[in-house]
Amino acid sequence: MPTYVALLRAVNVGGRFYKMADLREHLTTSGLSEVETHIQTGNVRFRTPMRSAAKVERHVEEVLGEHCGFDVPSVILTPAELRGIHEDAQGLAAPFPPGEGQRRYVTFFKAGHVPDPEAAERIAAWDEPGESAVAIGRAVHVWLTKPSLDAKFYPAFKKVLAPGTARDLKVVSALAEKWGG
């Protein structure tokens, strides 16, 4: 039975609250098995007999939307895809010298919603002090030497990044170690 990882967008931020215990219960009741979550930001692993990631995505979004009262966009990955994106992140050279308080983020995209080549070029060419990014496959990897709320990158690429969901690289590393097997 296939295993999937769902990264939920905008859960438990901005007044959009969904208790992880309720989420696990709702997904289990819907027919998914071995449902587990990691922290409160909507990281979920489960097994299902469904073999199509698109079907799994629709199922998860319908179940969660029905129970929590708002849309819950979900990025569905296989463990191998999660591991691959994490390996990409680990293989990228830091654009800034160590010790500048760098933070790393990864924005994940649904299949078919990745930045187009032109947007990927604009992301790679971004030249704001203390900010750098690169698009690879279904992810945009971001480095900041300032708080993310102060970064100009996110507002500049709001439309490009909007269908995605972002995670701190520390969370991505924890998920890859725990679920990327």
Automatic annotation (TrEMBL):
Pfam families registered for this protein in UniProt: DUF1697 (PF08002)
Domain of life: Bacteria
Entries under PANTHER family matching the protein: BLL4334 PROTEIN, DUF1697 DOMAIN-CONTAINING PROTEIN
Protein name in the entry: DUF1697 domain-containing protein
Organism, scientific name: Nocardioides panacis
Species classification: Bacteria, Bacillati, Actinomycetota, Actinomycetes, Propionibacteriales
